Amino acid sequence: MDIGAQEHVATRGTIGILGAGRVGTAIARLAIAAGYQVKIATSKPAADNALIIEIVTPGAEAVNAHEAAEADIVVVAVPLHKYKSVGAETLAGKTVIDAMNYWSVTDGDIADFEVDERTSSEVVAAHLAESKLVKSFNHIGYHEMEPDALPFSTADRRALAVAGDHQGAKDQVAAFIDALGFDVVDAGALAAGKNYEPGTDVFNGRFSAEELYAKLHGNLISA
22-33 and 167-180 are packed helices; what angle lies between their axes, rounded to 10 degrees? Predict the structure, then answer.
């Protein structure tokens, strides 16, 4: 489906993606289809990524991390244990989407998250202290993103949650998610991201906006 052809569109701009794994590239393909300019960076030099980016995400540009950080919105989709490799200074003042999860079952125990009572996104936000962090995309499987994306106003459109401490950044991310093909539910402050971390009902399910709102603001304890 050409999500970019939908009548209701967000203002198009640039999306920087840090990480070229399955989550990052799935978001990249949706963003390209929606009319965004997409720049993808990894820890490797851009030239080393150019061919694989061309194959996996046609239309995206392989860049170095500082170039991806210049985008209107930056998606951080690196393995969580590498979160400190993301340059805090380069992302200062930027709207940043944290698409990562802490899941010890698959990642093993990571001390930063085992000994801290804060949510994983709050720990990441402390590292990216000058950024406006928004938690989203973490409770949808990479393999579900493209099949589940639907045009605006489609019945039973899947919804994604956003949590963050900066309303303007949440609004910006919500417009981006809507353009990609999903409804959006505001979960609240960044700490409320705990309500859709691994192990929660939201993390393990697929919900419309009405259903997701009920889960986040009714059945679960809000932050």
Answer: 80
Spatial distance between the Cα atoms of 93 and 80, rounded to a whole number of angstroms: 21
Name the residue among 132, 202, 211 with its Cα closest to residue 172. 132
Single out the residue of 194, 185, 206 nearest to residue 143, CA to CA: 206
| Cβ atoms within 10 Å, residue 34 | 23
Helix (H, G, I), strand (E, B) or coil at 49: helix
140: helix, strand or coil: coil
Q: Which residues of the chain have pLDDT under 50?
A: 1-11, 220-223
Return the DSSP state at 90: T
Tell me 194's DSSP state. G
Find out whether 119 and 194 touch, Cβ atoms under 8 Å.
yes
Q: How far apart are CA 192 and CA 211, in angstroms?
A: 17
The model's pTM: 0.90
Please, what CATH class does the domain formed by 3-153+167-180 belong to?
alpha beta
Under 8 Å between Cβ of 121 and 163: yes
Q: Where are the beta strands (DSSP E) in the chain?
A: 14-18, 37-41, 61-62, 73-76, 95-98, 132-135, 159-164, 183-188
Tell me what pLDDT residue 84 has: 92
